[in-house]
Amino acid sequence: MEVLKSPLSASQKGKLISAGYTSINLLSSVSPSHLALELKISEAEALEILKTVSDGSRSESTSTSCTIVKGAQSAWDMLQEEETLVRITTSSSDFDNILGGGISCKEVTEIGGVPGIGKTQLGIQLAVNVQIPFDYGGLGGKAIYIDTEGSFMVERALQIAEACGDDMAEYSRLYRKGFHSHEVKIQPKDFLENIFYFRVCSYTEQIALINYLDKFITDHKDVKVVIIDSITFHFRQDFDDMALRTRLLGGMALKLMKLARKFGVAVVVLNQVTTKYSDGSFHLALALGDSWSHASTNRIILHWNGNERYAYIDKSPSLRSASAPYSVTGKGIRDSPSNNKRIKNI
Amino acid sequence: MTPENLLHRPTHTQYCTLGCPILDAFLGGGIPCNSITELVAESGCGKTQLSLQLLFTAQLPLHLNGLSASSLYLYSEYPFPNRRLDQLVESFRSSHPILFASSRDPRDYIFTRNCQTAQDLLDVLLLLESRLEKPKETRLDIKLIVIDSIAALFRSDFDNNPADLKRRSSLFFKISSILKSHARRRGIAIVVTNQVVDSMDDNNGSSGVRVGNLESMYTSGRRVLPALGLSWANCVNSRLFLSRHEVIEGVENGLPDSDYSGYVSRRKRRELHVVFAPHLPHSSCEFVILRDGVFGVDECL
Asked: Where do the record's region annotations for Disordered lie (chain A) (predicted)?
């Protein structure tokens, strides 16, 4: 429908046409504030125009979908979508259990812990596990690994990939004796080929890379996980202007969330821990401050308990807070051996 | 920006040998290039011994698992261990007579520089950048940087107040970042030594703050922690811990007799532990310090 035929006042029509809006359909994805800026009118008036236009177009077309708020979804649709949501296994069943099946796609998950607790190990494990094919209950995707600390070791990734390939061979031997077509084992080097590795040496590079990811994932649609190991390192040096740091981090967090939603990728952000002084005592907190804690949808803290490693869900909109032991073995992340013993004893 | 293809990288990171097959096997090949390895120990455990030895082994050709390059030794603890270096030159010459004939002195390929303050170290590292670009002109074809020790630089100049601590940890990250960018650009192996502090809390209560597995962090019967705290621990890629214990051996009468010490021989048992490393499990290995250098002890023998 053309603007000229719409039930708007003549001056409004004039403004719209001179701004280039000749058809009402063009207005469907315009926000009121944007329109107000473009036509140099008040926001209230812009809203009025959009309302009139949408009423007009609704009476004309029979479709019930509201075109004016583009991209809106009902909660029911979202629930159905979430049920089909795939998760990336951590290779530890206890850890997967508290996560509701694994690291969820479309969300930003932050994982923090002291040095040596296994953050990098978990990162490499996820980069490998995301490649498990559909037939084996995986995603069959690729991984982006952004290394800011230089802790990524190729031979370690190779070890974990080998173990993952062995596990898959074992699985097919046990459960699909008849299917010989699935016998083709993924070679460890294939796993490595599907990890896009970026080494980042400064915070400007880090921000530039995250801005670039949108384009990169558009070109590589099969990327299903983005791992940043760690988000923190370059932001802990020499920031005199803390307000600037907060702004940069905030912008980065928004972009990561957008990536997660837009492409349905799991964004895994590894963070360091620091001591925080409050109420006269020191205690442990994830680095980058309070404003950053809003940046992630889920927060998992890895910590020591006695001689065991534990994962604890600190924040999540859908998961209850729980903790589970896990261990880091030669094969990668696995269940804690003592936990298995306990179950056997019972 | 294009991602690196992991297959085009050499599947195995380059390692610098420690000059001892047992220790090399224990560390998965030696000290990895492109990464920061920290050696933590109380004084007299062999930090400097091990780092001096590395200055020599880095010069070995690639087929002997060396880096075939010079090394840089930045020291902050005085005096410079000249006598020990001379001893090692001799033993090194006798073990590799062809490579280091009398015309070629291994000391020509070891560069040293003292650093008194953290700022000093930062300046040296910044200046190094332009020098490393032209290895032929400056003769600085460096593949190994040893900083002995990082703790000495930071333990005196900073007060225990929030402003200083913040400045200190910001410096940690800055130094670490420069080191890592050197390491990355030129494939340099970086070794940093660190001191220890006594651990004050007896209970395991503060399990959140602890780094790595505490069990191994005993030396001379005391529980210790690496100096410089949590934020520095975030700056290194691998942490190795050297411990020393006095063990009583050779008790022949069953009961050690304090009056007659002839039957009791005390021996220092030194161990090297992996506290954390991206490529190694938590493990430990015994070693000895001899005149010719640091060597691992095979547990089976």
From this structure: 322-346
- Residue of B225, B236, B240, B276 to mutate for A, most A C-beta atoms under 10 A: B276
What is the Cβ-side half-sphere exposure of residue B126, based on CA atoms within 13 angstroms?
Answer: 8
B210 vs A contacts (CB less than 8 Å): 114, 304
Question: Which residues, listed in sequence order, are joined to residue B169 by a DSSP beta bridge?
Answer: none
Q: What is the C-alpha R_g of chain B? A: 20
Contact check, Cβ <8 Å, A150/B210:
no
- ipTM of the modeled complex: 0.83
Question: A120-146: per-residue pLDDT in tens?
Answer: 999 999 999 999 988 888 888 999 999
| Chain A nearest C-alpha distance from B206 (Å) | 9
Identify the CATH homologous superfamily for domain A76-345. P-loop containing nucleotide triphosphate hydrolases (3.40.50.300)
Domain ranges of chain A: 3-60, 76-345
Question: Among the CATH numbers 1.10.10, 1.20.1070, 1.20.120, 1.10.150, which is that of A3-60?
Answer: 1.10.150
Q: Is the dihedral of CA A56, A59, A63, A64 positive or negative?
A: positive
Chain B hits for A274, CB-CB cut-off 8 Å, are 230-231
Domain ranges within chain B, ordered by starting residue? 15-201+211-296
Is residue A174 over pLDDT 60? yes
Cα separation, B49 vs B293, in Å, equals 7
Q: What mean pLDDT comes out for the span B226-247?
A: 88
Same fold, A3-60 and A76-345: no
**Tens of pLDDT along A60-94?**
544 444 445 556 778 888 777 777 778 899 999 99
Say yes or no for a CB contact (<8 Å) between B278 and A156: yes
Vertex B204 angle, CA B201 and B208, to 5°: 100
Asked whether the beta carbons of A144 and A216 are under 8 A apart, the reply is: yes
- Alpha-carbon distance values, B53 to A75, A100, B298 (Å): 65, 51, 19
* Among the partner residues A151, A197, A198, nearest to B278 by beta-carbon distance: A151
Options 3.40.190.10, 3.90.226.10, 3.90.1170.40, 3.40.50.300; CATH for B15-201+211-296 is 3.40.50.300
Average pLDDT over residues A298-327: 89
What pLDDT does A63 receive?
Answer: 46
In this model, does residue A311 exceed pLDDT 50?
yes
Average pLDDT, chain B: 82
Closest CA relative to residue A154, chosen from A186, A118, A195, A122: A195
pLDDT in tens, A227-245: 999 899 999 877 778 888 8
φ, ψ of residue B94 to 5 degrees: the values are -70, -30
pLDDT at A15 over 60: yes
Question: CA–CA separation, A165 vs A187, rounded Å?
Answer: 7
- Nearest beta carbon to residue A155 from set B12, B207, B211: B12
Chain A interface includes B119 (CB < 8 A): no
Handedness of CA B194, B197, B202, B204 (dihedral sign): negative
